[in-house]
Write a structure and sequence with these properties.
Elements lengths: L8 E9 L4 H20 L3 E10 L3 H18 L3 E6 L5 H9 L6 E5 L3 E3 L3 H11 L3 E10 L4 E2 L8 H9 L1 H7 L1 H8 L10 E2 L7 E5 H6 L12 H10 L3 E12 L9 H18 L5
Parallel strand pairs: 1-2, 1-4, 2-3, 6-10
Antiparallel strand pairs: 4-9, 5-10, 6-7, 6-9, 8-10
Length: 281
């Protein structure tokens, strides 16, 4: 989508897929199209969307191209497709856009997120108005309609093991540990909150900051690369939970995705603790 007059700001969006559910991706892109409209209409800027296919199966790639064609022709949502030959991980997929020509502001977005119609407008305005703000995270509802706490305090080995292997028992028998990690004590209000760590399902930052940091650390294949990037962006400015920016996140925890994801979760967790310090309880 293009503005009718010269935009003052360019906003880029990267969405990484790997055999991801096309139905959810379609919802993501339709909601993004609705969220782009007020940004463009308000003369704030133009928005470029890139879907990065991280080495998906050949048949999936054909279906993905057809979906993007339909969205362009029927909905006017113009999406660039970047097809990578190999899956080198979540962060590497996003870095293929960040290392190129990101916008003044860049949105890292999951293919299972729906934006409120005013989410992008509110997020960009907030970042533009505060030069000290380096990274923004939104209010999120989960697929069950309950608030999902995307922001986190630094994790401990104990809490991560509970979340990975026994999430239901962890919430029942160790609610204080779980809620403290999820920051539900402070992120359950309508106030902005300064936070240390945010989820990679929606991260809005300045393109120049992301480039200066080299984007995601590609040694993390999946999981914890968002925490690592949060800490590094936090050295450039504040990391904020901004609840007036609202999304719905249809994702799930690693424990619900099988043993392969649990293995990646544990390996990335080990790297995170080795890099940023161990916390046991």
């Amino acid at each position: 989508m293009e503005a009718s007059s010269s935009p003052t700001t360019r906003i880029s969006v990267s969405i990484v897929v790997f055999n991801s559910a096309l139905e959810l991706l379609q919802k993501t892109l339709l909601s993004l199209g609705d969220a782009i409209a007020p940004v463009v209409a308000g003369g704030i800027g133009a928005v470029d969307i890139t879907v990065v296919d991280n080495g998906s199966e050949k048949g999936y790639g054909c279906q993905l191209r057809e979906l993007l064609r339909q969205l362009r022709e029927e909905q006017g949502i113009d999406v660039e497709l970047l097809s990578l030959p190999l899956n080198r991980g979540f962060g590497a997929g996003h870095n293929s856009v960040i290392s190129g020509n990101p916008g003044d502001f860049h949105l890292i977005l999951n293919p299972d997120v729906e934006l409120a119609p005013d989410a992008l407008l509110r997020a960009v305005r907030r970042l533009r108005s505060d030069e000290g703000l380096a990274l923004l995270s939104p209010f999120a509802l989960g697929r069950d309609g309950r608030q999902e706490f995307l922001c986190k305090r630094p994790p401990s080995v104990f809490v991560l093991c509970l979340r990975a292997f026994l999430p239901a028992l962890g919430r029942r028998f160790f609610p204080t540990h779980m809620s403290r990690y999820e920051m539900s004590d402070v992120c359950g209000t309508e106030s902005d909150v300064k936070v240390p760590l945010v989820s990679g399902c929606f991260m809005l930052a300045r393109g120049g900051d992301l480039q200066s940091l080299g984007g995601f650390d590609e040694r993390y294949f999946l999981y914890f690369e968002d925490f690592d990037l949060s800490l590094r962006l936090g050295e450039l400015g504040s990391v904020m939970y901004v609840p007036e920016v609202r999304i719905v996140h249809h994702g799930g925890y690693a424990s619900s995705k099988g043993w392969r994801h649990l293995g990646m979760f544990m390996r990335s967790g080990l790297r995170y603790f080795q890099q940023h310090g161990w916390r046991w309880i």
